Structures are given as C-alpha cells and as structure tokens.
Task: structure prediction
Amino acid sequence: MFEAAGLPAADDEALTPEERAERAKKQDKEVEASAVHLLSRREHSTEELKRKLAAKGYPEASIATVLDKLGKKKWVSDERFAANYVHHHARRGQGPVRIRAELRQQGITDEQIQQKIAGGEQDWSGLAAEVRRRKFGAELPRSAAERAKQARFLQYRGFNSDQIRAALKFDPDLDDEPERD
Result:
C-alpha cells in the first residue's frame, strides 16, 4: 500500500506514533502532488479524481484527506467540472441525454446535472438542427427511411424526441408520408 506513494513497506506496529504521523504526512503530500498533476491537465470531478488516485494504489484515507483539502482550496469542484463538461460537449454537438448519462458516470449529482443542462445557455433544439444540417445537409429528409436514419443519428448524439422532431421539422399529427410518383 505504501509502495505506491514511494515509501518503503514497513511493519506499522514497529513504528512510533511520530513515525506513523510523518509517514502519513509524506503520503498525503505524494497523493496531493499526483492529484494536482492530474488537475493541471484538465478539470476532473471529485469521483473521477478519487478513482484515478485509487488506481495508482493510494489508500482511501489519504485520498479523502487530499480531496477535502483541494475542495476547500477550490482546486477541484464538481459544479465547475459539470459546467465545463456541458459547455464543451454541447459545442461538440452532443445532446443533453448523452451529456447527462456521462456526467452521472463521473459522479455528478442529478441536481447539479439538471442545473447545468437547463441553465438556459443552450438551445438544444437549435443545436440538434445544426448537428443534423452539418451531417446531412440543409435539405430536410423526404422519405420515412431517410427521416428515421437522421432521427437515429440524433438520438445517438443524445437528443430527445422533441428536439429531434424540431430538428427534422416533423409533426407526426400533421405530416404524412410524401406521395410517390
């Protein structure tokens, strides 16, 4: 367990309380350095950072201590991570359904996710229409098969059915299948 932090393994019972405290302090510094290194590259959620540090073999107690310390310094913030994530992935043409699912995997609460997605910054129907136009061109689909193909694409990108209908300018109550010659 201590080998991951660069500290030699030793029998804890053979150490004095001062030595144990010194060892824990060194380990916390090692965990903090690793966390700061990860954060220097990009924003991480608390849960994501916890998983990455645990994968490096650091003990959970040190990880919790360091994450608490970094949270108090505002170096790690789930709210900031969620805002950046929604903005970045929306610019890449991903819809709210997909973004919500990915943020849940990152350990962000449903309340924070809903707040960031419904924040009013993004016109999801407009984004769906833009993504459809970039992929398939300005002309709307003429056949049911083409409409279904474009709808599946938008659904994969994470848009809901209302946003897809708006992007395809399709109302199932008003629009019928075009007549074929």
Notes: The chain has nine helices and no strands. The chain has a mean pLDDT of 87. The longest helix spans residues 17-41.
